[in-house]
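Task: sequence design from structure.
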């Protein structure tokens, strides 16, 4: 059986050299491997089956903030639609439309403007659909979770 490589996390292995810099809390974690044993997860999260100590939980709350999912407030659909026109491709096509109009090709300029509008509408619709899908998935997440602190649930 081949040796497994180190787990994919931002945390150094437990036997890493002393004095190494701590991980940056803003750096995203690599996805966990569900085949890894629980001991590896506990080591990488720097905890134990007894949970975090109250003091360590308070420290992590200060460093990382509360363990909550950010929910978007009221959406401004007109603002989101307008943002589609400030995308790099839309801006490049706008320059092309202006150049086409300036060189005496108004039909080409109108065609390019139609492509810009169509692209913005399709991208906006796709973004709205993706947001609805994320909200539907978020409905399956529990509002509360049990935590173990100092061995007490």
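Answer:
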């Amino acid at each position: 059986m081949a040796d497994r490589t180190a787990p994919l996390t931002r945390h150094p292995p437990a036997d890493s050299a002393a004095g190494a810099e701590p991980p940056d809390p803003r750096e995203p974690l690599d996805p966990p491997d569900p085949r890894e044993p629980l001991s590896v997860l506990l080591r990488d999260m720097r905890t134990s089956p007894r949970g975090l100590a109250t003091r360590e939980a308070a420290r992590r709350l200060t460093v990382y903030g509360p363990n909550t999912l950010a929910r978007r407030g009221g959406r401004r659909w007109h603002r989101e639609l307008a943002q589609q026109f400030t995308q790099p491709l839309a801006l490049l096509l706008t320059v092309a439309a202006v150049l086409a109009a300036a060189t005496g090709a108004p039909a080409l300029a109108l065609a390019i403007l139609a492509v810009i509008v169509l692209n913005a509408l399709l991208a906006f619709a796709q973004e709205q659909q993706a947001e609805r899908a994320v909200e539907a998935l978020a409905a399956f997440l529990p509002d509360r979770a049990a935590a173990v602190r100092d061995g007490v649930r």
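The radius of gyration is 25 Å.
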